[in-house]
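The pair is quoted verbatim underneath.

:::
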Amino acid sequence: MSTDKLRNIGPKSAAWLRQVGLRTHEDLAAVGTVEAFMRVKRAGFKPTLNLLYAIEGALLDCHWQEIPDERRSELILAADAATALLPAPRNRPAAGPVRTTVLTEDTVAMPPLFDEPERGD
């Protein structure tokens, strides 16, 4: 069964899953709920916990709201642990903003870069 026809998986989620190579129920079952979710996340998409629950429900053939709270907590902990192992996002600055200060001779007396050679007169 393709991801287009899996229970709980809407068109957007199905497209994300296809783009990370998960096209069938068997593909999802082979990698598991958390790994499927993490593949979507690593691909640069912004999945919410609803996708995590939807994948689990698709694998169990139940509505995602029927997943017990205890299992949801397990899924969240596993996804959080896997997310912590991801490299830092590249689109965020590594440090605070950089401020450039331009100094001119009028504002600061600059010391010479090199000592002047002594002249033997």
Q: What stands out?
A: DSSP finds five helices and no strands in the chain. The helical segments are 11-19, 25-31, 33-42, 49-60, 69-84.
